[in-house]
């Protein structure tokens, strides 16, 4: 399944890169400013309420109908709210086109709400091949429409057309793959149970989305669409990279964490292993990206995106945090204790929003630095919460990331030296030389100083297909 996800993400990213080359920075900034409201609404109807259909309980017609009509009602209400709020949003941004863009994007919320149940059925039946084909075809159709509109001169509306075409294709594919059809009745008892189930994860997932979408809103309102565009492109790179790194690890860890919780205890040994592997892989990847941000942006998206390099370098630190925090989130959800983590996540959102407002007059790089600093400052509290659940010391858990952080620092020194020596080369050659240097430097340091984590990585990639040996937790404080 991980291979299918990688292919899907790669395909989406290629289309994104093509559109970024054709369209201007302002177009992406405008879309990011408006899409933040749409994405948050889409989140409320995608894989939240419908997740109850993935539990072990049998799927009765009453349950399916209740979930479907509850989602349809919520999707309809949110779509109307976006339509009515388009004017105030346009006034908030002082961008007249924002109203039309928000109205144009708003139907995707209702469309996604109507397809959440068939998607959940496919996930429950583990028909991942169908889901992968659906995602790839949706991306292809959306890409053709978006690129075609961009070449025809439609500007930012190309991104709206891409989104609508992709969502419509996903609906057709999802409903065509399942035999179930909704009936015009629902159970109040089932609706109450659905809402009770959903609120447990809604707060945490909503905070996760708000953390990365609220900056686009505030930056767009205070600095304008061009800085918002630079933030949007940097975030898209970080989002894609972190997704590709952490998804295989979560695929291994999530069912094991859940099984341990059902057996009456947290999977502490596995938690340590996954944490060690996450830092071992994510920290050098994002450290290298921080150094090579400018040639990477120019090569992928074109010279006009070069001013986003300082933002991407700073956001690379956030990428390290994001990968490690995803492991914490997975463990807390499996243990059935997401409450404190959700509270801490909303504290991060509130503090980050305040910092962005205060630092906005000093420019986008300073804003980005403040944004990242907030998450790093709150992070020890999340480690303390994780330690409380796992029965381990929070500082001891933090120290699991110290070695890869130091090794990544050594790698950065080597890569930066090569970049300085080869200054003036084309972005492609500079990126290639920096990447090769980073891989060799980190590989050598890991072989000399982190052989235990190399063995962990080999065991995961070996013939056992994701089996991780038990971690040695004897020296970890409890």
TrEMBL record:
The chain crosses the membrane at residues 12-45, 66-86, 101-123, 135-157, 163-180, 270-293, 305-323, 343-364, 370-390, 402-422, 428-449. InterPro entries: Poly_Biosynth_Transport. It is found in: Cell membrane. One of its GO terms (cellular component) is plasma membrane. CDD domains: MATE_tuaB_like. It is a multi-pass membrane protein. Pfam families: Polysacc_synt_3. Keywords: Cell membrane, Membrane, Transmembrane, Transmembrane helix. It comes from the Bacteria. Belongs to the polysaccharide synthase family. This is Oligosaccharide flippase family protein.
């Amino acid at each position: 399944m991980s291979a299918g996800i990688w292919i899907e993400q790669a395909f989406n990213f290629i289309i994104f890169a093509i559109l970024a080359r054709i369209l201007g920075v302002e177009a992406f900034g405008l879309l990011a400013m408006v899409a933040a409201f749409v994405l948050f609404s889409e989140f409320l109807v995608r894989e939240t309420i419908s997740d109850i259909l993935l539990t072990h309980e049998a799927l009765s017609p009453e349950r399916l109908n209740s979930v479907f009509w509850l989602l349809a009602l919520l999707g309809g209400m949110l779509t109307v709210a976006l339509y009515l709020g388009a004017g105030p949003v346009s006034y908030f941004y002082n961008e007249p086109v924002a109203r039309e863009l928000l109205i144009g994007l708003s139907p995707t919320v209702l469309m996604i709400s109507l397809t959440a149940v068939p998607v959940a059925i496919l996930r429950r039946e583990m028909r991942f091949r169908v889901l992968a084909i659906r995602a790839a075809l949706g991306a292809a159709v959306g890409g053709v429409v978006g690129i075609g509109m961009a070449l025809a001169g439609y500007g930012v509306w190309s991104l709206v057309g891409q989104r609508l075409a992709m969502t419509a294709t996903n609906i057709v594919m999802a409903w065509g793959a399942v035999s179930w059809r909704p009936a015009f009745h629902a159970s109040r008892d089932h609706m109450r149970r659905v809402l009770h189930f959903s609120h447990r994860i809604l707060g945490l997932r909503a905070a996760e989305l708000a953390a990365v979408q609220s900056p686009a809103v505030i930056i767009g309102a205070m600095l304008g669409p061009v800085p918002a565009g630079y933030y949007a492109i940097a975030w898209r790179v970080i989002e894609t990279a972190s997704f590709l790194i952490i998804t295989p690890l979560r695929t291994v860890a999530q069912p094991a964490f859940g099984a341990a919780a059902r057996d009456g205890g947290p999977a502490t040994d596995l938690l340590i292993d996954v944490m060690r592997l996450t830092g071992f892989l994510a920290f050098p990847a994002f450290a290298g990206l921080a150094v090579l941000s400018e040639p990477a942006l120019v090569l992928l998206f074109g010279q006009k995106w070069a001013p986003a390099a300082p933002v991407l370098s700073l956001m690379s630190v956030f990428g390290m945090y994001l990968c490690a925090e995803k492991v914490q989130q997975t463990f807390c959800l499996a243990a059935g204790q997401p409450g404190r983590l959700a509270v801490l996540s909303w504290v991060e959102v509130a503090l980050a929003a305040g910092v962005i407002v205060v630092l906005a007059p000093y420019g986008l790089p300073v804003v980005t630095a403040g944004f990242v600093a907030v998450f790093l400052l709150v992070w020890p509290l999340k480690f303390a919460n994780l330690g409380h659940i796992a029965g381990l010391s929070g500082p001891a858990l933090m120290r699991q990331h110290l070695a890869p952080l130091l090794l990544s620092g050594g790698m950065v020194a080597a890569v930066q030296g090569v970049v300085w020596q080869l200054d003036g080369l084309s972005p492609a050659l500079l990126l290639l030389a920096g990447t090769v240097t980073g891989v060799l430097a980190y590989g050598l340091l890991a072989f000399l100083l982190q052989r235990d984590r190399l063995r962990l990585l080999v065991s995961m990639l070996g013939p056992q297909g994701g089996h991780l040996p038990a971690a040695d937790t004897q020296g970890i404080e409890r």
